[in-house]
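Researcher: Structure prediction, please.
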Amino acid sequence: MGTIEKSATFPVSAEKLWAVTGDPNRFGDWLSMHQKWKGDVPAEIKQGDTIVEVVSVMGMPNTITWTVEEYSPGESVTLAGTGMAGVKIAMTAAVTDHGDSSTLDLKTSFEGQMLVGAIGAAVEKAGLADLETSLATLAELLG
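Model: Predicted structure follows.
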């Protein structure tokens, strides 16, 4: 199993950070691996919801059917999904309030027969680069 983790602190309130990162409809604004949603995505998700997303890592698109495993509005969301070739992915985004700033912690883990050895390591490296790009884009967006 591969794991990618990245955190960043922004000079904005946790509420402002969550308004962007906790809303799946805003993923396209900052999350570089997000390509599009298939079907409607509710304005506010809740535990048990299912949403379908097309993501791209290393130029390879994959359709992921996500289930919202945990959802704590304003604080965190955990999605677990399955994609093509039996790829299983879990993603957690958590926001921590520091008063005059807030931190976003992102963690993604993935596994599958196609994601072992050198391919798994390459996906992990590319995924980390995607998260770094996403956090830089988020910093610009939050201004």
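Model: The first strand starts at residue 2 and ends at 10.
Researcher: Thanks, that helps.
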